[in-house]
């Protein structure tokens, strides 16, 4: 894998958007995942803005296996 300015740019853009600390960004050469990023600390995407009130999403019981 190559580290490049393009990978750093897109990784930093995501870090800025979500408030994460970017440690490393590498170009993968793959079309589906062009940049592989490593972030430091707790990194989680925010909850979805999808309307989940339709259907049985809230009626299912939690299953902690």
Highlighted features:
single chain, 1 helix, extended, 2 strands
Structure in words:
The chain has one helix at 5-18; strands spanning 21-27, 35-40. The radius of gyration is 17 Å and the shape is extended. With 65 residues, it is α+β, with helices and mostly antiparallel strands. Strands 1-2 form a two-stranded antiparallel sheet.
Given helix and strand content, the structural type is: alpha+beta
Spatial gap, N to C terminus: 37 Å
By DSSP (H or I, 4+ residues per run), the number of helices equals 1
Going across the biggest sheet, name each strand in turn. Answer: 1-2
Question: What is the general shape?
Answer: extended
Radius of gyration (CA) equals 17 Å
- Helix and strand sequence: HEE
Q: Specify the biggest β-sheet.
A: 2 strands, antiparallel
Give the overall pLDDT as a whole number: 77
User: Beta fraction of the residues?
Assistant: 15-25%
């Amino acid at each position: 894998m190559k580290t490049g300015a393009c990978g750093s740019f897109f990784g930093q853009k995501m870090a800025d958007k979500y408030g994460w600390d970017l440690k490393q960004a590498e170009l993968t050469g793959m079309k589906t995942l062009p940049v592989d990023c490593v972030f430091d600390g707790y990194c989680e995407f925010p909850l979805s803005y999808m309307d989940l009130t339709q259907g049985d999403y809230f009626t299912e019981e939690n299953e902690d296996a």
